[in-house]
Amino acid sequence: MAASSLHRRFLHASSVLLLLLLLLSLSPQPSIAQQPSFRPKSLILSVTKDPATRQYTTTLLHRTPPVPLTLLLHLGGDSLWVNCDQPYLSSTYRPARCRSALCSLAASTACGDCFSTPRPTPGCNNNTCGIFPYNPITSTSTSGELATDVISLNSTDGSNPGRSVSVPRFLFACAPSFLTRGLTPPSAGVAGLGRTRIALPSQFAAAFSFPRKFAVCLGSSNGVVFFGNGPYNFLPNVQYTSQSLTYTRLLINPVSTAGSSTAGEPSSEYFIPVTGINVGGKPVPNLNSTLLSIDAATGRGGTKISTVDPYTVLESSIYAAVANAFVAAAGNVTRASAVAPFGFCFRTKGLTVTRLGYGVPTVELVMENGRVGLSLFGANTMVQVSDDVACLGFVDGGSSPRTAIVVGGYQLENNLVEFDLAGSRVGFSGLLFGRQTTCANFNFTTSTTAA
Ligand SMILES: *[C@@H]1O[C@H](CO)[C@@H](O)[C@H](O)[C@H]1NC(C)=O
Ligand SMILES: *[C@@H]1O[C@H](CO)[C@@H](O)[C@H](O)[C@H]1NC(C)=O
Ligand SMILES: *[C@@H]1O[C@H](CO)[C@@H](O)[C@H](O)[C@H]1NC(C)=O
Ligand SMILES: *[C@@H]1O[C@H](CO)[C@@H](O)[C@H](O)[C@H]1NC(C)=O
Ligand SMILES: *[C@@H]1O[C@H](CO)[C@@H](O)[C@H](O)[C@H]1NC(C)=O
């Protein structure tokens, strides 16, 4: 009797083991560790725009077991940070120990103990280094524990999502829940795509040995971010490669915004050398050139690209000059009352409609080489505010904003913008409508052959 029950227990244990092995071999969790031969050449994240708050968010899998995280997409952000106050359950969470290589990678010199909980918990461990996660919506930062955990996302062949891949020890900051104030629910943090070593582009490039390069394609509701090499393909069969983009040098602002985690170091944001603006093919006269260049001592002035400003913000004198040139070049248009945050609105009745949006004067950003870097047609300059009124989608930033021109999300929509960190350049596709496609036209249907 005893022998038989022992035997049965053994049988039972072995069948559980067998079942486990079977489940493991069937479970669709390809990771780098399990498939050393598989090296993706690029990765993708989907992007969604919240219609009310105009925040662009993305989703990736985090932790073990994996949890889908919605994160604000922050082009200039220096790291990934997530709210660790919500129950954070993960068997793969590891705090970054003081003075470890991870702390140097994050340029963190802050080192400390945590007394806010009696026992170690994600976000609160002793002898760990910290960084300063930053919320760009509320311009707030606080200290947070630097840590690693696994993240997963889809690889791509440029056309479809391919196999899911994981980065087992992805560096990020643990933030207290108050830092998520201002983020559109269910956002649990911020995905920074800035130029630091710990922002997403550099960590992915290091994990998969592909170039430090990424491309953002924001849509009015859906879009995509590619990491690594192109090509970038959109339905129906429209391909963008480095050859089809117009490149401009990326500038480094030597002085970070106060309060960001890169304080005291060069900014992690992307600046471009705009030297002038054309409206309707003609240069806007008398733009203040002091404002257009970055002041090396203070970091003020210049032009940056932003995914957290919903519309382009211009310093007052630039705003007035551009708006007046626009009205003059538009000719016979009927002004309507201003609708905040815009100052220049028009009756749409008199406007023509083209493939590239309302037929209004083109606004062009001219770069240091005298060439046009970014051309904005009606689809990127005119914002429909009611059935019969559309406004010039630029916002007056006041007389002393830190940055003279902040190119915002609406002006980037349906343009593919590639940031080549190694080559220190940014490439613009021009409006995708010109080739009869949109940023929402990346084919997110999984293909079994795409890698
Ligand atoms: C950190 O260490 C101190 C004692 O040195 C202890 O009181 C505290 O509870 C520890 N904190 C954590 C999170 O382990
Ligand atoms: C990969 O892509 C598929 C199809 O779009 C999606 O359902 C899945 O959530 C993605 N996986 C990850 C890890 O993002
Ligand atoms: C240009 O901008 C700078 C910096 O704001 C300002 O000091 C200067 O007076 C401006 N120049 C003109 C001609 O308005
Ligand atoms: C301007 O537009 C109005 C109404 O659309 C029209 O009546 C008028 O003739 C136009 N004027 C010119 C100079 O085109
Ligand atoms: C999207 O990709 C899937 C998988 O490769 C393919 O079956 C489908 O035909 C594609 N959709 C279109 C509209 O081409």
TrEMBL record:
Domain called Peptidase A1: residue spans: 56-429
Short name of one Pfam family: TAXi_C
Subcellular location: Secreted, Extracellular space
PROSITE patterns linked: PEPTIDASE_A1 (PS51767)
GO cellular component: extracellular region; Golgi apparatus; plasma membrane
Predominant location category: secreted
Tree of life domain: Eukaryota
Claim: Secreted is one of the keywords in the record: yes
Signal peptide extent: 1-33
Keyword annotations from UniProtKB, A to Z: Secreted, Signal
UniProt key word Coiled coil: no
Gene Ontology terms: biological process: proteolysis
Gene Ontology molecular-function annotations: aspartic-type endopeptidase activity
Family: Belongs to the peptidase A1 family.
Name of this protein: Peptidase A1 domain-containing protein
Species of origin: Linum tenue
